């Protein structure tokens, strides 16, 4: 099963395209800098994209509307 659930994430972000864009940018940032917003042991995912999605779910990444 995929964690976090796409249904739960789409209640936070209003489109799949925007969600993919946010996760890709944050995943790349994690890969380049190594900076995590939670302790490594608190993440379920081991990969950067999954960790970025977990940060969106936890509210650590704020999505601003234009």
Note poorly predicted spans. none
User: Radius of gyration over alpha carbons?
Assistant: 11 Å
Basic shape: globular
SSE topology string = HHH
Please tally the β strands and state the result.
Answer: 0
Strand content: under 5%
Q: Kindly, what is the distance between the CA atoms of the first and last residues, rounded to a whole number of angstroms?
A: 33 Å
Share of helical residues: 40-55%
Task: Indicate the mean pLDDT.
Answer: 92
Protein structure class: mainly alpha
User: What is the helix tally?
Assistant: 3
Biggest sheet overview: none
Q: Could you characterize what this model shows?
A:
With 66 residues, the protein is mostly helical. It contains three helices and no strands. The chain has helices at 6-12, 16-33, 48-58. Helix 2 (16-33) packs across helix 3.
């Amino acid at each position: 099963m995929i964690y976090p659930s796409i249904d739960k994430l789409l209640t936070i972000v209003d489109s799949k395209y925007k969600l993919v864009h946010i996760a890709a940018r944050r995943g790349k940032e994690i890969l380049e800098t190594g900076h995590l917003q939670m302790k490594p042991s608190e993440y379920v995912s081991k990969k950067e994209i999954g960790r970025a999605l977990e940060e969106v779910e936890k509210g650590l990444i704020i999505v601003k509307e234009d």
